[in-house]
Please model this.
Amino acid sequence: HIMGWEPYEITHPPLGKIIISFGIRIFGMNPLGWRISGVLFSSLFAAVLYALGRQILINRKWSVIFALLGCLDGLHFVQGRIATIDTYIVFFCTLSMLFMIKFYRTNILREDTFKTLVPFALSGIFFGLGLASKWTAMYTGAGLFIMLVIYVCKTLNEYRYAAALKEGGELKAY
Model:
């Protein structure tokens, strides 16, 4: 990728390898160069875990524990240290879930549309980055799709209920 050659290994999409190449461009073709990007993403993953914990658990103390437990499992740091592309897919897919949860907690019927759709768009962008790193991000896509279907059903149900109240009609259990 650095030299612009057609790669001979195409089992995974190129983004993870391109991210690794940034470290190589800065520090050279040596152990530091090919490992630094993974180490940085692994370190940033702790902050992503904390943010995800804040969305799921709400409480700051439990969010810190959530992030610490994620950090105590050394597998993610090992994967980052040995320059595998698994680091990037986990990072991007976790961010996509974080923003989908933020989107799920919004209400497009009551809130500003732009403010509501920003987390949805960010979820899609990070999902795309995960998919551009490794094909197994499709499993995250299935989870995101399920959350979206639930959100749409919940929103339609609320819309029908509000429309029935406005018309003064009979309220049915939606």
Remarks:
- The longest helix spans residues 138-167.
- The CA atoms of residues 103 and 120 lie 5 Å apart.
- The chain has a mean pLDDT of 90.
